[in-house]
Specification:
The protein is of the alpha+beta class and 379 residues long. It is 18% helix and 39% strand. It is globular and about 60 Å long.
Length: 379
Amino acid sequence: MNSKREEEVLLSDAAQMQRELEKDAGTTSIRLSVQLGIERGQRGDRQRFWNKSRSLGFAAAIIVAALLFIIPFLPRASQPAAPAPKVNWGALQVFKDNVLYEMDVPTFESAIRNNYIQLVNQTVESGGYSITLNAITADENKIMYLYTATTDDKQEIYSINSAKMKDSATNRYLNATSQVGGNVEVPEQQRNHVYYGRGVVELDRTQPFPQQLEAEFRIASVNPGKMDAPRTGTIMSEMHYSPVLKIGFTLDPKFMAYKTQIVQPNRSFTLSGHEVVISKVELSPLVIKATIALKNPSENSRQIRSAIFEEFFSKEILAEVHDKTISLSTISGGGSEEGYDYLFASNWLDHPESLIMAIKTGAKNNQTELKLDIYKRGK
């Protein structure tokens, strides 16, 4: 994404988050937006691997032998977070390269590994614009979809002006929570004519699961050569828009098979001098939701909730899968009647042996780190 598009997306996400948060959340939404912005800025990073040097001498061999003798008697330390096993993204690799934030990747990779992706690959064209709905994945809490927009040589894509998902049975639009798009890895000669996108829709699992859906898109564009102009996007007369492009499809029934599992870990810790508790964790293929509540109900006032959750603290979930620890980042958060709800990435389809919430509180030079078990398989 170029800087203007990144700014547009981040401003849009920040505005959406502010609408979702309760009034009593105070400045928490700002803090969370900054935190997510830092995480999203790391999307293009790629982990590098270094080879250890070889040719150990005789003395080193003795040391290794001694360590092999001693290690079985040492207490086992917890493993640091590690990358998940490599996944073949196939035709979806372009979305990982151009669209997905680092925090999205564990969820999509878990879905790919477990054949939990529906390849739609339907295209609609009109007036030199086209949209392809490439793929979708869903559970009873969330839908995530991937799409590709293109134009002919008479227009250059500025952004996706609108992306919606409608339940055809009720004729109602579903609750879209975020859109992001980009083309940073597209070859230069095609870059202004190809745009990849990722959309997210929240579902209410108390309502019937949608089966027949219609995706609606509208592409914003400018004349050739205008994309790099400093005021592009601010002069409405220069903007052009595609007709509303609609794609109807049937959602794969396999997405209805997984029901949300709810656990109540009741793990306590202290924030801003008040005891809070991880009271509930909801587990599903695409999202993990954790509720952090005040342990003492008498303290459950707007003023106290604001003071507690305005204190900056970072959090992630560490999932243990086959002796590897996978980091699941925070996606978003919002106030609730109990306290605060946090949404995390999920690899629930991988059947993790355990989930640990890692929390850091306090100033950077005086941080407290906690690791609290929130789920163990079989318990």
